[in-house]
Amino acid sequence: MQSQDIFDRGNWGSKLAFVFAASGSAIGLGSIWRFPIMVGLNGGAIFVLCYLLSVFFIGFTVLLAELTIGRHSQKNLVGAMILIKPGTPWKGVGYMGIITGVFILSYYSVVAGWAVGYFYKTITGAFRGEVTWQASDSLFRDFAADPLAVVICLFVIIVITTFVISKGVKGGIETWSKILMPVLFILIIILSIRAVTLPGSGTGLAFYLKPDFSAFNLNVLFYAVGQAFFSLSLGMGTMTVYGSYITKKENLVSSAGWVCFSTTLVALLAGIIIFPTLFHSLHLTPEQFKQEFEVSTGLMFQAFPIIISKMPGGYIFGILFFILLLIAALTSTISMLEVPTSYLVDEKKWNRTKAAVLIGTIAFLLGIPSALSNGGVNFLTKANFMVIMDLVFGNIMLALGGVLICLFLAYSWKVKNSLKEISIGSKRFKLKTLWTFNIKYLAPFAVILIIVFIVIKNIL
Ligand code: TRP
Asked: Who is most buried in 125, 185, 316, 326, counting CB within 10 A?
């Protein structure tokens, strides 16, 4: 089919198009849903600080590495490693990324499905009038515990994602991201202004922005690094595939910088909305919050209806917010499905639609236990299945993938070769020395040490 040939390996229209598309992959539930949960579970502002440092020193480093490998090879991670170092086991890192991606897609789509459900609820008027914390909390719990609803919503997400991917990346992602990401951004800014002007928002802001250094421990760092990988879509080859669509004219360094900046900004604003809203409606002090408040996987879904109900024109705001959240989530699920699909298309010469449908089906089936684990069917009663999947794949496997990508670039492909690729399109690379140090030493070894300590601490 001709249209498929055109889209199978196109290039991004322009630099801006790339930054939008890559930010579209990065900005999503990771920043708006996952980041606030991590902040809530890991001591508030101290986590935010560790996250910012992780993005700057590790996230940016690995992002630039993935983009460079992708553009140089014009391939997905498996293909790139075979091209750059044929006959070595490095391609295993690519396979690892593919598997990780399918697992992340499975539970990520469950949460994206919640956004579908909430979109529907908003339209049908569930959040009209004043929404209290108690009402919002039980509404979320009832919804997440309804097995049929959550599985249908999961199915909807997988079908849309599969459809877009089967049409090819260029047509699929570029158009959506370009128009809708800026709108989402503006909406989030408006909501954060409302949140900080709520009575009692000060305690929420203090919890969120005033670090309590005594709360620092290795777990905080571990989750902060994991969150940096997750929110920037790193460690499994997503950004390698995206990099493979960038033309030689573009500046990889500034593109990577923009993606880090926009993603971090959205995450920070999501927190600015959620914590003041929570503290406002719960009347808690930061200490009470740490001791008494149960941070659930639904944190964002519990908090947003409250703040939306406090906006003039809340009904329209709510509809707009959940549809944009849905789109932000979809641009991310699309990028996740693109990794295994482009592998099967490029390396195994599969038909794009067939590849997308197969992987989509697997992700759907893998997603069912996660969908049911938030109150629907309590297998693994205490430890939520979705939380375990997220720990293993969203934190550990991404971090490991990121480490291996750094080691591959620094010690196998070699930094000097990657710098040649980077210098095409970016004449001056001011952070060259820092990046070289980070990719060779800081990023891989800091992450390895953190993982080793965490494993020792939890197993022994
Ligand atoms: N970064 C996205 C988000 O924050 C999620 C995502 C998309 C992702 N592709 C990825 C995470 C690849 C890890 C790896 O919502």
From this structure: 326
